[in-house]
Design goal:
Blueprint: H1 4-11, H2 16-31, E1 58-66, E2 73-75, E3 82-84, H3 93-102, E4 107-110, H4 118-136, E5 141-148, E6 156-160, H5 166-177, H6 192-203, E7 210-213, H7 231-240, E8 245-251, H8 278-281, H9 286-291, E9 298-301, E10 322-328, H10 332-341, E11 344-348, E12 352-361, E13 364-367, E14 371-374, E15 382-390, E16 405-412, E17 429-434, E18 440-442, E19 445-452, E20 459-466, E21 486-489, E22 492-496
Parallel strand pairs: 1-4, 4-5, 7-8, 8-9, 14-22
Antiparallel strand pairs: 1-10, 2-3, 5-6, 6-7, 10-11, 11-21, 12-13, 12-15, 15-19, 16-17, 16-20, 18-19, 20-21, 20-22
Helix pairs in contact: 1-4, 2-3, 2-4, 4-5, 6-7
Region (Disordered): 40-60
InterPro entries: Pol/histidinol_Pase-like, TAT_signal
Protein name: Phosphoesterase
């Protein structure tokens, strides 16, 4: 039986000579784009997850929201519509993979826009190019999927598990449920009921995909004044498929907008905060409201790369500025498992390359995405250890970023809310702030320890850090994104029984 690499090489349809030529074209295209700051320092792949290398897992950086030349346009004067490449994003799939590798990513995913009959374009044109790219850049695990035109909502990642019939699985979901795939347009596809139907269909597949909301507040017109994506829709979707619909981008792409006079993230109505969507950045806001129900709802950070800012776009290359780290083996299945189950932290500007948050009590221990169980009768203290690794070297801008503060954030888990529109958790607070004098070096890591006293209620904790002196992330203006760096962990839950 052929192994996976041999199968993909055969499916790519290219001879060895053609592969070499194709690789040369991709490398030339990549080299043609100016790079600021020289070669970036690479993340240390030897950093073990949880300081113990659980199941051989390490923090592996990636990006699940990248566009290629297959984010194009359709001429609907013809029937069927005629697709033209490169109208919105311009780079070949292999170029994105080469640049992802250059900036230290070990996994990535092209998520191209849909449109009328786009499911056929994906199947017949884009997928063969992905197979070629996998052969040419094997160091980067390249997932198959798309930027899904979610019924009634803004765009979402639709990530397909890596298997022999992945192309057909995406074709089935896109052709049946993407709101713009039908031609002529079908208004019945653009409803919340259709979104829930899609999620249930995805949930019931033998190989479950992943769905993650993109730039969730980009259409919001104020703080808590929601646009296309609403708390109610997140809750209903997560209720329908809790192991498929698992989160949203904490830090959206298009972070280079200010370098060309635009808004960070393309958030023209209401800004991001330290580069993060208001749903994530606001302590006690929507993310905390969802976590306060005990939901396993995770955040990520992506590039949303279309056109590099040095060519007039608003984007960084995959991994150049934003990274989503997943604790996993270098394996498609385990990386997807890490995303599904929240073994994730995110950072901008390579402020850190590893982040472990551990809670322990009464002999029990839990790390990011896990649950620590404590005995109610003892009302025990919970010991929290925060272990982060600063970048050893320069980032892609040529800077040596420094962590100036780390915050420990705690909120109560009070159960499922009867109000589907709830977007605050008043119990969530910054319970401790730490500066350089509060942590100690242990090898390449910085270690902080803190005790949560007399924990008597279900709760969760999460961590963020910054290169700034802002006590809370401020609304973003035209400042350089390189001067405003943050990292965020996903939560550790505490259950009292």
């Amino acid at each position: 039986m052929k192994n996976e690499k041999a199968r993909e090489s055969e499916q790519s349809g290219l001879s060895r000579r053609q592969l070499v030529k194709y690789a040369g074209v991709g490398a030339t295209l990549a080299a043609a784009v100016p790079l600021v700051g020289g070669t970036p320092a690479q993340a240390d792949d030897e950093r073990k997850f949880g300081n113990g290398g659980d199941k051989g897992r390490r923090w592996r950086a990636g990006d699940h929201h990248v566009h290629s030349e297959y984010s194009g346009e359709f001429d609907t004067k013809t029937n069927p519509p005629t697709f033209h490449k490169g109208a919105d994003a311009v780079y070949p799939i292999v170029t994105n993979a080469i640049m992802a590798k250059y900036f230290g990513l070990t996994w990535a995913m092209c998520t191209d826009h849909g449109g009328p009959t786009h499911s056929k374009v994906n199947l017949e044109q884009a997928y063969p190019d992905l197979l070629r790219s996998r052969v040419l850049v094997p160091e980067v695990l390249q997932f198959w999927g798309m930027e899904f035109d979610a019924p009634a909502l803004d765009h979402h990642t639709l990530m397909i598990p890596h298997h022999a019939d992945e192309a057909r699985q995406l074709f089935e979901l896109e052709s049946r449920f993407a709101k713009y795939d039908a031609f002529p347009t079908d208004p019945g596809r653009d409803t919340e009921a259709k979104m829930v139907e899609f999620l249930k269909a995805a949930r019931d597949m033998p190989r479950k995909p992943l769905v993650i909301a993109h730039h969730a507040s980009r259409s919001a017109t104020g703080l808590g004044v929601w646009g296309q994506d609403t708390p109610r829709e997140f809750r209903n979707g997560n209720n329908a498929a809790p192991d498929v619909y698992v989160g949203f981008e904490g830090a959206p792409g298009h972070q280079a907008g200010p370098l060309n006079g635009g808004a960070r993230g393309g958030y023209g109505n209401h800004p991001t905060y330290g580069g993060f969507d208001q749903m994530t950045a606001r302590v006690g806001g929507l993310w905390d409201s969802l976590l306060g129900e005990g939901r396993h709802w995770w955040i990520t950070a992506t590039s949303d790369s279309h056109v590099h800012w040095t060519r007039g776009g608003s984007d960084f290359w995959p991994g150049e500025y934003s990274k989503t780290y997943v604790a996993a083996r270098q394996d498609y299945g385990d990386i997807m498992d890490g995303l599904r189950n929240g073994r994730i932290f995110v950072t901008t500007g390579d402020l850190v390359t590893a982040l472990d948050v551990t809670a322990s009590s009464q002999g029990g221990k839990a790390t990011v995405s896990e649950t620590l169980v404590v005995n109610r009768r003892n009302r025990s203290d919970v010991e929290v250890e925060i272990r982060f690794r600063p970048l050893d070297g320069k980032n892609a801008h040529g800077d040596r970023p420094e962590v100036r503060r780390v915050d420990l954030i705690v909120g109560q888990v009070t159960g499922v809310s009867a109000n589907l529109d709830a977007d605050t958790n008043p119990t969530t607070k910054v319970v401790a702030r730490f500066g350089p004098k509060d942590w100690r070096r242990q090898g390449q890591d910085c270690v902080i320890r803190h005790t949560l006293r007399d924990v008597g209620a279900d709760s969760y904790l999460r961590v963020r850090g910054t290169s700034t002196d802002e006590m809370e992330p401020q609304a973003d203006g035209k400042e350089s994104p390189w001067e405003d760096l943050w990292f965020y962990s996903n939560p550790v839950f505490i259950r009292v029984r």
